[in-house]
């Protein structure tokens, strides 16, 4: 657990970090967030996170100007104060406090919250693991491209996966795969790497963006298109990406084993090359 948290221009004891009960993030999920990975006490992919944060706050018309320099300073201070080596920084920005009403008022002062958490990553070493996943209906709101805290559908999906001793829930819309409860989904078919295009149906993952550059540098074939649940089950390899999962192999979906339940060569290569790229 963090010893210190950041709350509205102050570093406070984690247990003392509190906001008003009429904060709109608390009452309406009227807030956005980012999760930044930290390896060997280094902030990774920060430019991409800041860029996405700008997009989210702009799409929701927040009264907040994203400042790369000041946020970086906050994150570095939290890493140092909490002596974090490997883990994540959680940042949340809410629209602010107002008497409870669905329509928001202009000019509200946002609440800015940040803290750190230790985490063990699934790195491409001798302990690299593949995991099981389940499929689950995509019942999220219509703008998952905005990284908001409106995550109840994701929570239901992730909890169902946990009940079934699986790592992730892969979301199905109609008969198409969109993404997963907390990650982007990729398949490998005929040495082609396929993932859903970055539109309003998925979150444009930071690790997804970095991995696309890695794939290009390796001169592998990447196709961004929708794919079906049938194509998922018949894939040669399946993996997911996120700041918390990096590149994590999926070796079974529901009752269907992928690549005979083994980590695929392309997945392992991408995991290794992504790790080299971000480190």
Explain how this protein is built.
The radius of gyration is 19 Å and the shape is globular. The chain folds into two domains: 4-118, Aminotransferase class 4, branched-chain amino acid transferase, N-terminal domain (D-amino Acid Aminotransferase, Chain A, domain 1, 2-Layer Sandwich); 131-278, D-amino Acid Aminotransferase, subunit A, domain 2 (D-amino Acid Aminotransferase, Chain A, domain 2, Alpha-Beta Barrel). It is of the alpha+beta class and 279 residues long. Strand 14 and strand 15 (246-253) form a beta hairpin. Strands 7, 8, 9, 10, 11, 12, 13, 14, 15 and 16 form a ten-stranded mixed beta sheet that branches. The protein has a six-stranded antiparallel beta sheet with strand order 2-1-6-5-3-4. The two termini are 25 Å apart. Helix 5 (206-217) crosses helix 7. It has helices at 24-28, 46-59, 68-81, 152-163, 206-217, 229-233, 265-278, and strands at 4-7, 10-13, 31-39, 42-43, 87-94, 111-118, 131-137, 168-173, 176-180, 184-189, 192-195, 221-224, 227-228, 237-242, 246-253, 256-257.
């Amino acid at each position: 657990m963090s010893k210190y948290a950041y709350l509205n221009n102050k570093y406070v004891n984690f247990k003392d970090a509190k906001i008003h009960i009429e904060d709109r993030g608390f009452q309406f999920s009227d807030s956005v967030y980012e999760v930044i990975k930290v390896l060997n006490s280094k902030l990774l992919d920060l430019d991409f996170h800041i860029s996405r944060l700008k997009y989210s706050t702009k799409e929701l018309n927040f009264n907040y100007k994203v400042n790369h320099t000041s946020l970086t300073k906050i994150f570095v201070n939290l890493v140092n104060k909490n002596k974090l080596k490997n883990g994540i920084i959680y940042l949340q920005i809410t629209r602010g406090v107002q008497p409870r009403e669905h329509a928001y008022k202009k000019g509200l002062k946002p609440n800015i919250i940040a803290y750190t958490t230790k985490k063990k990553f699934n790195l491409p070493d001798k302990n690299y693991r593949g995991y099981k996943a389940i499929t689950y209906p995509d019942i999220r709101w219509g703008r998952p491209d905005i990284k908001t805290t409106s995550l109840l559908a994701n929570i239901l999906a992730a909890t169902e996966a946990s009940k079934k001793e699986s790592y992730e829930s892969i979301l199905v819309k109609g008969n198409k795969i969109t993404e997963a409860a907390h990650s982007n989904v990729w398949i490998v078919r005929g040495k082609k790497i396929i993932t859903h295009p970055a539109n309003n149906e998925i979150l444009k993952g930071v690790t997804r963006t970095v991995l696309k550059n890695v794939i290009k540098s390796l001169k592998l074939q990447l196709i961004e298109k929708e794919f079906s649940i049938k194509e998922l089950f018949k894939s040669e390899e399946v993996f997911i990406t996120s700041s918390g999962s990096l590149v994590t192999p999926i070796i079974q979906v529901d009752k269907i084993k992928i690549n005979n339940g083994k980590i695929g060569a392309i997945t392992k290569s991408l995991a290794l090359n992504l790790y080299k790229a971000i480190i």
